[in-house]
Every structure is written in structure tokens, then in C-alpha cells.
Amino acid sequence: MSVELLNVVLHSDLAPLSKRMVATALASIAPPETLTVYPSVAHIADLAGVGHSTVRKYLGELERDGVITRTPRSNSSNVYRFHPERFRPTTRTATRREIPPEPEQAPEPSTEDTAPRQEPEEQPPSTPPPHGPHPSSSWTPPLHGMEVTPPHGGGHPSTSWTQKGNRRGIEGLLDGGASAPAPKPPRRKPRSRLPHEWRPNDTHRAYADEHRLDLDREAFRFRHHAEATGRLMANWNAAFTTWLDKARDLRPPHGPKTEDWRRYCEQ
Fold first, then answer.
1. DSSP H/E element including 147
2. Phi and psi, residue 233, nearest 5°
3. Which of 39, 58, 228, 230 could join 19 via S-S bond, C-beta 3.0 to 4.6 A?
4. What is the pTM of this model?
């Protein structure tokens, strides 16, 4: 690749842009010794990013401009030779070279050095008020969720945020106290193990009779599963209702109450 040839092509007056791209594609693969290349039309189209018909069109125009010479070969691609001296530079480049640089102008004298200096006027000392904070200090009332902590010896109170602050409280203060602070979320019921005295209630019995489930057998299996896994629940009655609902899908055979559950209850 010849860097000088590429520089000549890129700064030439070839137009439009597709024509210059075809010439640049040829120059990018031309050796600096001979400036002769013989690529195919498809290869030139891939390098320039244009179609085959566009390559053939602008190769003919470059040959008519005299910047390249095309020599056809039989059963092979043509040979293209560049003539860098026939390229014409762009008008913008020539004009830029002809414009002389502007002379540097001497800086104008500053008026700060010539103007007389004025001494600052002495301000009378300000006397603090006898009581309360300085009148120039700005103090705003604390928002909701802020505690006012006066410093030792009186003076301007300082404010500090606490965990009680919330967005609703601030908006309520700005609205004149129209909205109340947000209520605290209810506490969750503590979870515990299955009590020994727990037994199915009437709701469980009605559900078991409706869906033909052996209530004593399911309660026996439910207790042993809870004790074996060490489960903790906040509401064991609701947990047993879920157990019965899953047992309904399994549809175990309906039979008499098991003796294992009766012996377990008598212990």
C-alpha cells in the first residue's frame, strides 16, 4: 500500500463520494513501487462498499479523467495503473494554503492598573441582640419526625432526624396538618410448634365429611409430619385446612378411623 498515493486520492477533487471510494479502494492495494493493481470488480466492490455496476461506471470515468490507465487481459481481470500527477487537489485545500495567517494583535492595556484604588469603607461593629438568636440567621420549624435538641447554654436549637420521619408526615406539615402520619403495620403472629393438645375442630370435620376424608387418619399423619420436620406455624388450624385440601386431591380410600390415632390421643 502506498501512503503517498492514498493521501493524493483522499485530497483530490473526485466527486461524488462513491467515485472517490472506488479510487481509494484501488489505491489501498496498490504497491508503492509500480502503482499497478489487477483486482476483480467484485473485490473492488467489497472494498468500496458499493455495487458492481457502480464500480464499472466509475472505473470508466477515472480512465477518462486520465488518473488511471486500464489494460484489459484475456480470461482475467484488468490491470490498472495510477498516475498521481494527474489528480487535482480540492479547492478547499488550495484555498486554505493560500490564506496567510493573521498577525497577532498586541493586548490592550488593562484599565485596572490605571484606575485609582479605593480603600474599603470601615463598617461599624454589629452588636448582638440581648436575647435569642441572631436576627440574620434563618431557622425553620422542625418537620414531622425531627427532634429539637437545644445546645447547652441556650441559643439556636439544632435539629436531628429520627426514625419516626416519613413522607406522609412531611406532606401533612406542608398541607397544614391535614393528613395524619402513616399507621404502623400490624405485627405478625409469632410462630410455634404444634401443641400437644391440638385437635381438629368442627370446621375440619365438616370439610372431611363433605369430601369423604378420614379425619382421624389425616390428623395423625399431620401431627407426625409436623413433629418429624420441626415445623413452626402461626395458625395450625389453617395449616391443617391446607393439609386436608391437598389430601382431597390425592383421594385416599375412605375407611374406618385408625387405632393408631386413638392410642396416640390416650397417651
1. strand 146-149
2. -135, 150
3. 58
4. 0.35
